[in-house]
Specification:
Layout (H helix, E strand, L loop, with lengths): L12 H11 L4 H10 L6 H8 L7 H11 L11
């Protein structure tokens, strides 16, 4: 079961992920492929849902995003 909302809190990391992805000139498919190399099975459709606040991001997924973009995981706790 995918959770997209928790006690009226929505995903704030989606906008940050989208911004980092675009700055890195990666498509959602390219990002999905990089995640899969790290053992994270996300599709481009799921990345789209994350970026559009329709799916929450798991903590282990955030760490994978941080590794790909070479940033601290703390960056995902801020709004763009």
């Amino acid at each position: 079961m995918k959770i997209n909302k928790y006690n009226d809190f929505k995903n704030i990391s989606g906008a940050v992920i989208r911004d980092l992805r675009q700055k890195a000139n990666l498509s959602q498919q390219n990002l999905a492929e990089k995640l899969q190399l790290l053992g994270i099975e996300l599709t481009s459709k799921e990345i789209s849902k994350i970026e559009n606040d329709d799916r929450l991001v798991q903590d282990f997924e955030l760490f994978a995003f941080a590794k790909i973009f070479n940033v601290s995981a703390d960056i995902f706790n801020t709004k763009v």
